[in-house]
């Protein structure tokens, strides 16, 4: 048994189990039922994948479906553990995986080595059996899933919502240990979160499992995560907009916004400072490409 063995698992009841990795506190979620089992982002170390596969086997489901929330390497390593399973992911997933396949394998090997394990399974890019985008309802009895486009961090990202369980699997968003990590203009990420906000207010999410970090329990806790990340994005956007108005270069905007406050700023474990500075650049390029901002009265209502 690994030292953190028992604590690695959280049982959410009703066949839903979450396993947190030793690496990056990455969460894999299992929906277990004799009719159908679903594994969401199974990972990330080989011993952990063995353990997840064992838990699925124990439920002896008639079918296993793998859902991948996005194509980043730490989320896509599990497929080789379930060769017969169907897979579901975003319709941009396959091309991102194909583009990044060598890097994914390199990262998998490196991470395993860092944790005293060996990555023996290789990695092959694959096409999901079901590629979805937009808003997609899915029934895998007894599980009902709503998959939603969730761009901002990765173009192939989806969030997963189990309406009957009031559960949101948030992919790489709404973490208590990471700030939003942009791959595009700030606005893209902000809109993804803003779309979830009315649902959260209405009580659609009683439990939130982020891709990394702790599970949030209760409507208020879920709302707090949303508000904190939206607050960060709004401050980032405002700061960058001011910098652009004043004619600052991207380098000058980076150094000015280095002083901004945000979650995990002084953490030595995660490269949060570097992520924040990259975010400044994405926000800057995004606003620059959008052109000079119009007065509020001229912007379309949302
Ligand atoms: Zn990611």
Tell me what the structure shows.
By secondary structure, the chain is α/β, with parallel strands linked by helices. The chain has two domains: 6-172, Ribonuclease Z/Hydroxyacylglutathione hydrolase-like (Metallo-beta-lactamase, Chain A), CATH 3.60.15.10; 176-197 and 217-302, no CATH class. The chain is 36% helix and 20% strand. It is built from seven helices and 13 strands. The protein has helices spanning 5-8, 46-58, 93-114, 186-201, 219-245, 250-257, 272-290; strands spanning 9-13, 16-20, 27-31, 36-40, 63-67, 86-90, 130-132, 135-140, 143-149, 158-162, 167-169, 207-209, 216-217. Strands 1-2-3-4-5-6-7 form a seven-stranded mixed β-sheet. Strands 8-9-10-11-12-13 form a six-stranded mixed β-sheet, with helices on one face. Helix 4 runs antiparallel to helix 5 (219-245), helix 5 (219-245) crosses helix 6 (250-257) and helix 6 packs across helix 7. The longest helix is centred in the C-terminal third of the chain and has 27 residues, at 219-245. The relative contact order is 0.10. Mean pLDDT is 94; it is low at 295-299. The site of zinc ion has 5 residues, from loops.
The value of Rg in angstroms is 20 Å
Q: What is the mean pLDDT?
A: 94
What ligands does this structure carry? zinc ion
CATH superfamily of the largest domain: Ribonuclease Z/Hydroxyacylglutathione hydrolase-like
Q: Per CATH, what is the topology of the largest domain? A: Metallo-beta-lactamase, Chain A
**Which architecture of the largest domain does the CATH hierarchy give at level 2?**
4-Layer Sandwich
GO molecular function, one term: hydrolase activity
Keywords: Hydrolase
InterPro entries: Metallo-B-lactamas, NDM-1-like, RibonucZ/Hydroxyglut_hydro
Domain Metallo-beta-lactamase: 25-212
